[in-house]
């Protein structure tokens, strides 16, 4: 597949949700209405083979009729889980199109928290490898089509660019991925993003200190005393994962560094008006050198928004990309 950079992607915002902020906030304003219909998901518990004793917990939903379609794997963003609005909406969307869907709770997130002493971070691609290897071969025999949202998109891009060719991944997609982690962290800390920053940092702290987390007293203090995401990563995430600083951690795990190694057809979707994940790194990338990548950069859409008169534009684009 030849690379494609499409700035005019024919996205028209749904009235009255104009602009990046309203597009972003609509997910939360209408979250209750976007829940999956009442049904029982299958619960999977996958051990991580790194000696930690941690396990990932995931929710598996299957369509009424099995037609041999690949398994769609959904990976949430920072402070999210399988229950995040964008995850449940995507599950309902792809189930309706006949795909089995797996919603992953990353290490220490959501229902994985009681089973994990460690915590996911922007470079936790090894956990996804362990997940794939731990799945029943019946689930992976038709291939995988993973979709990473926000920070989950960055983790997915690192996976694809390092060991993706060794996994049964057919195609992949990222949505609103912060491919330059340092720029995104600085952007989130801007005054105009105060509410987003506080919301994310508060939820992240709560997630990291919930029952089951194996924290030392120093780590607990580092988390609680952090006043910004950069501070949080500098005091907790970086040292816990062997990095000297937040800057070191960001540089080593930024998705843009792994784009050249991606061989599976992958579409990256990002809005130019995303309130806190800058579009600059996407505009500066030389996409002509990435033959497996397609990039959609609509003018509007916000962060994980893309609400248009027909529903969710980004999911329709991914569906078309997967089906092509």
Written overview of the protein:
- The protein is of the alpha/beta class and 324 residues long.
- It has a single domain, classed as Alpha/Beta hydrolase fold, catalytic domain (Rossmann fold, 3-Layer(aba) Sandwich), CATH 3.40.50.1820.
- Helices cover 36% and strands 15% of the residues.
- The strands form 2 sheets. Strands 1-9-8-7-6-4-5-3-2 form a 9-stranded mixed β-sheet.
- A hairpin with a 7-residue loop joins strand 2 and strand 3.
Question: What is the CATH C-level name?
Answer: Alpha Beta
Strands of the largest sheet, in order across it?
1-9-8-7-6-4-5-3-2
**Secondary-structure class:** alpha/beta
Which sheet architecture does the biggest sheet show? 9 strands, mixed
Number of domain units:
1
| Helix content, binned percent | 25-40%
- What CATH architecture do you see? 3-Layer(aba) Sandwich
| Overall form | globular
Task: Round the Cα radius of gyration to an integer and report it.
Answer: 18 Å
The total of helices stands at: 12
Q: Uncertain runs with pLDDT below 50, 5 residues or more? A: none
Strand content: 5-15%
What is the third-level CATH name, the topology?
Rossmann fold
Query: How many individual β-strands?
Result: 11
User: What is the CATH homologous superfamily assignment?
Assistant: Alpha/Beta hydrolase fold, catalytic domain
Whole-number average pLDDT? 94
Distance between the termini: 11 Å
Series of secondary-structure elements, N-terminal to C-terminal: EHEEEHEHHEHEHHHHHEHEEEH
